[in-house]
Design goal:
This protein is 22% helix and 23% strand. The protein is built from eight helices and 18 strands. The strands form five sheets. A six-stranded mixed β-sheet has the order 13-14-12-15-16-17, sandwiched between helices. A five-stranded mixed β-sheet has the order 5-1-11-7-8, with no helix packed on it. The longest helix has 32 residues, at 330-361.
Length: 392
């Protein structure tokens, strides 16, 4: 079964309404009113986004685009509180960004396993007449209706959480490199061809022992073209997936069939990243000169390859000369990328830890613009038009 990669979609969510409070009085034979006993309603259910590391696309939410939590139940007699509505949970892959589709505001990012974020808080419960008993008001008939839930249209965007992103022009050999370094099976062709969807693969350092668990995730990002930063081709759709990668590997064809200058190709790739996002251009990176096995069949091939390597090193970049097709130089590349990934993971985790309170704060009802989401006093309920019954 082929599952299409979905990286952007819109959904509608609605949290549950709070249950109304109840006006009720205890009764007995020949004693119709022994005292108030109307209970509070139940809270409405929340809409909760849940990190699902096993997912790698937004397909599951695209084909079920409406998520509605359950309403809270009305209060009961004998002071019983109504049942709270069931939450609705929406599993999404790591790397999902949740935006308000109307304002465009980023609400939250799903970044780590186990993360749960309340996007739309359920309406608070209403109050039953038992709440309004006082020494001077023994038979209250007042009650407060539950608060309404929150309705929102959300835009979800998935940015791959790969450790290493392969960036290069079409036919640079990125798909072949991914296929030989991991178990991924991207489409590979012997003619000018670009991958149309990002491909992920887990690169394991098996050389360190059969049961070694050291690994990192590599992504074959669809081929860039000149003008990608301006949206040419599928530029923005492709470049966004590089935003979350910890390390960028520029894959350059050392002996392109069109005779183009590999050094100029590298500068083009760098300029497109710079134009798209300066922070992205400053990401840790290496240069992978691919197809070095062709050097012996080219005029002055070995010398040209050495000159190219020297020219790239003069730019201050770490260079690897490899052949994805014949596995030349792959072990050294894999080892270096793993070291870089570990360094960036530590930095990322430290940054995430410092941001966590802020990230969690974004999920509060107050941040979503939902005022007075706690228990309200009666005067406020009157102003809201949710208080009913006799006053006195």
């Amino acid at each position: 079964m082929i599952v299409k990669f979905i990286d952007s979609t819109e959904i509608f969510v609605a949290s549950g309404h709070g249950g109304n409070g109840l006006v009720s009085f205890k009764t007995a034979s020949n004693k119709p009113r022994l005292g108030p006993d109307g209970g509070d309603g139940g809270h409405g259910g929340d809409v909760v986004f849940v990190a699902a590391p096993q997912l790698n696309t937004l397909t599951t939410v695209r084909y079920k685009s409406r998520f509605i939590a359950e309403n809270g139940a009305k209060g009961g007699t004998s002071g019983k509180t109504g049942r709270s509505g069931e939450d609705v949970e929406i599993p999404v892959p790591l790397g999902t960004e949740v935006y308000d589709a109307v304002s465009g505001r980023l609400i939250c990012e799903i970044l780590v396993p186990g993360q749960r974020e309340i996007i739309a808080e359920g309406g608070r419960r209403g109050f039953g007449n038992l709440r309004f008993v006082s020494s001077t008001h023994q038979a209250p008939e007042e009650y407060v209706a539950g608060q309404p839930g929150v309705e929102m249209t959300l835009r979800l965007e998935l940015k791959l959480l790969a450790d290493v992103g392969l960036a290069g022009l079409p036919n640079a050999g990125k798909s072949t490199l991914l296929s030989v370094m991991s178990a991924a099976k991207p489409k590979i062709a012997d003619y000018p061809f670009t991958t149309l969807e990002p491909q992920l693969g887990v690169v394991e350092l098996k050389e360190r022992g059969e049961f070694n668990l050291e690994s990192f995730v590599m992504a074959d990002i669809p081929g860039l073209i000149e003008g990608a930063s301006e949206g040419k081709g599928l530029g923005h759709e492709f470049l966004r997936h590089l935003e979350r990668t910890k390390v960028i590997a520029f894959v350059v064809d050392a002996f392109p069939i069109d005779g183009s200058d590999p050094l100029e190709t590298l500068k083009l790739l760098q300029s497109e990243l710079q134009a798209y996002d300066e922070k992205l251009a400053k990401r840790k990176s290496v240069v992978v000169l691919n197809k070095c096995d062709l050097a012996d069949g080219e005029e002055d091939g070995p010398q040209r390859l050495l000159q190219l390597r020297d020219a790239v090193e003069k730019l201050g970049l770490k260079v690897f000369t490899i052949s994805a097709a014949t596995s030349i130089g792959l072990r050294e590349l894999k080892e270096r990328l793993h070291v870089m990934v570990l360094e960036e993971r530590r930095l990322f985790e430290a940054e995430l830890a410092s941001r966590l309170p802020v990230v969690k704060g974004l999920m509060s009802a107050a941040a979503l613009g939902v005022d007075n989401h706690g228990m309200l006093d009666f005067s406020k309920a009157i102003a809201d038009g949710r208080a009913f019954g006799k006053m006195g």
